[in-house]
Amino acid sequence: MEHLFTLIFLLVFTVAPSKAQRNITKGSFLTTEGVNTSWVSPSGDFAFGFQLINGNNSYLLAVWFDKTVDKTLAWYAKTNTQVPELVVVPSGSRLQLSSNGLSLLDPGGHELWNPQVTSAAYANMLDTGNFVLAGADGSIKWGTFESPADTILPTQGPFSEVQLYSRLTHTDYSNGRFLLQVKDGDLEFDLVAVPSGNPYSTYWTTNTGGNGSQLFFNATGRVYFTLKDRTEINITSTIMSSMGDYYQRATLDPDGVFRQYVYPKEAARKWNNIGWTTVDFIPRNICQAIRSDDGSGACGFNSFCNFNWSLNETVDCQCPPHYSFIDQALKYKGCKADFQPQSCDLDEETMIDQFDLIPMNGVDWPLADYEHYTSVGMDECKKLCLTDCFCAVVVFNNGDCWKKKLPMSNGILDSSVDRTLYLKVPKNNNTQSQLNSNSIKWKKQKKHWILGSSLLLGSFFLMCILLASFIIFQNYFAMESKKTDLPKQSSSTGGLPLKSFTYEELHEATGGFSEEVGRGGSGVVYKGQLQDPLGTYVAVKKIDRIMPDIEKEFAVEVQTIGWTFHKNLVRLLGFCNEGAERLLVYEFMPNGSLTGFLFDTVRPSWYLRVQFAIGVARGLLYLHEECSTQIIHCDIKPQNILLDNNLTAKISDFGLAKLLRMDQTQTHTGIRGTRGYVAPEWFKNIAITAKVDVYSFGVILLEIICCRRNVEKDMTNDDREILTDWANDCYRSGRIDLLVEGDEEASFDIKRVQRFLAVALWCIQEDPAMRPTMHKVTQMLDGAVEIAMPPDPASYISSLQ
After folding, report:
1. Could you say which residues bind ATP here (predicted)?
2. How many other CB atoms sit within 10 Å of the CB of residue 372?
3. 354 near 347, Cβ under 8 Å?
């Protein structure tokens, strides 16, 4: 036993030092590619080097927690300007330590950044997370602790002057909308303008009257601010049984909240994806803390802020009814109205007829008031808003009436708001309201013109009407004689007009249907080029499986498809409905289908695959919930996800389910869909709903995560043959890393991999009622809602493939 202990002792003290990072000497370098991409601290807890961002071959020079699953960044390089800007470098860049100091060079050898220290003898990545340049005597000449980005670490400080800019978003490391700084003897949090960095207002401060001194984060897990008399003010603090068992950091997050986090080191060693846990934060409610005359507040303009105490104290920015985010990924940009603003040219009666006021409880935009009335009743208050084209919201409270106008800022949803406001929205859809507005305006102009015209002009006008009537009457009988069912354009819809092609036009455009680019259950697709001024390339689908009993409804169904327009849907440009020929003309997708990208020998980047998943989800959300008529696709699969010039994923073949024969399926007569993606309810005597698309999306999401087909019978490991089964097993056993084995980008983003996997397992539940809606799916993918552990899907999936 004594010899055993001696052996262990020798192993520890001989092997361990070999893993420690030695001093980094002059002549050492790092590159964005290859094996020499980072320098690791002796314990292996921290690394300094290049981190890939955005999946577009751009890198940050950064320090990160090297043993956490998500490789959380603790520091990243910024310029040495008054408002520091992020330093982003392209692939092929190089960092070198020479007699001239530490230099970051682009592929052409031009210097992009340096810490302006030339007297360094060597560098070192310390176990504290501080990367330093040291002199020959060992004195530190510069360190990353001196210029924090958005995070501070234990033992970092004290700071008598410091600035921490939040990130713009969790994945965009540019300067965000919030700034923490020690300034003039106070610690304060400021709302700032993007991208100028101009401070708007302070939303939290120690308010010491200039008697403050320094900010410090000590090794026991306490962030505090000292005064000149050595009094200490706790900023955040936590009491753990042993802080040495945890990684710690304090970060000014993109939502403006300064949070202190811990991460158990044991979980990092076992590669368990427990993640960072919030142990303290300020301000206690960011939604209430920010109230600024300038800027939009905690959330964007026209949105409101909800602080979720039950969901890890997160900020949830929401849009009011009939409004939507300008950019779902960048919610700080605010919300836009999904309808045309009220025209100021309408009379009062028309205004009241076209718009309505809907109540909203617990919501307020406190600084949007522009007019105040007293001693009025509720009905009068509402009328004052309905007849004012500038009024977007009205508030009534005990005889007081406030009108609010766009854009509205500092929105908040909170139980402390004890009054009801009324939001102005159109009674009918946007286009119809606009048409009515234009029609009324025209009638008024027409009336004034007729009253002021001479008899001669009146006679001329009458002749024009008679001539137009004759032409319309003649065209009507000409159209009747053709006996062709052309779709009728509805002026009340927001869709784009579809062009009616002749068969000869499409035959010529496709070179006699010579270049086939796709084939599916509904027909064959050919590449073509229109004879228009732009020479537009198109994809022409010859539909050969039209159901006989609905051929007369073809035009109506095509028009429904034409009214759908979304960035993640392939746009329908026109159609041909001539004799027995039924053809659809789509925009051409030059990068083919998702199949060619996912299952090729070269795996697409993880960040590009994330965009594929989010894009398909948003396209399905539009079809299910946001277009005027709900469309259930019924055949979601990678072949029906096409990619445009910018590699934006777009859903094709939507809206065809009503047109196709029931025997189009590849799996079973009477079932629509494709083998491997078919929801279980197709095999049961139950109603088919939009949840069949949710199931298919879940399968595709797994394929996007793993870059392999759902069914691969040539697998050497039988347990991995069916992807849905294998992914579920990996999730249950805590071995998510196996799904992205060899995928460095995905492994670094393992937290998102886990989230996407959980979403997919929810989507493939056997019971349709258990599956989330696509609205819920998009929220879960974005990380906007908490995801509970999905139930174990039934084993029937394997037997149905």
Report:
1. 542
2. 10
3. no
- pLDDT higher at 595 or 717: 595
Query: Do 20-147 and 153-283 have matching folds?
Result: yes
Q: Is 141 among the annotated ligand-binding positions? A: no
What is each CA distance from 671 to 656, 660, 676, in whole angstroms?
14, 11, 13
CATH homologous superfamily of domain 594-800? Transferase(Phosphotransferase) domain 1 (1.10.510.10)
pLDDT > 70? residue 81: yes
**What is the residue-wise DSSP string for 484-500?**
--PPPPPTTS-PPPPEE
pLDDT exceeds cutoff 60 at 164: yes
**Three-state DSSP class for 248?**
strand
Residue (of 311, 387, 313) closest to 351 by Cα position: 387
The active-site residue, picked from 45, 255, 388, 635, is 635
Domain 153-283 has CATH 1.10.8: no
Q: Is 0.85 surpassed by the pTM of this model?
A: no
Angstrom distance (rounded) from CA 586 to CA 558? 12
On the question of pLDDT at 489 being above 60, the answer is no
Residue 784 in this model has a pLDDT that exceeds 90: no
pLDDT at residue 122 greater than cutoff 80? yes
519: how many CB neighbours lie within 10 A of its CB?
Answer: 11
635 catalytic residue (yes or no): yes
- DSSP state for residue 302 in the 8-state scheme: T
Backbone angles phi, psi at 6, to 5 degrees: -65, -40
pLDDT 10s digits, 401-446: 999 999 999 999 987 888 889 999 998 644 344 434 444 443 444 4
**How large is the average pLDDT for residues 529-557?**
75
What is the predicted pLDDT for the residue at 552?
57
Q: Where do the structural domains in the chain lie, given as residue ranges? A: 20-147, 153-283, 296-458, 499-587, 594-800
CATH of region 499-587, choose from 1.10.10.10, 3.30.200.20, 3.40.605.10, 3.50.50.60? 3.30.200.20
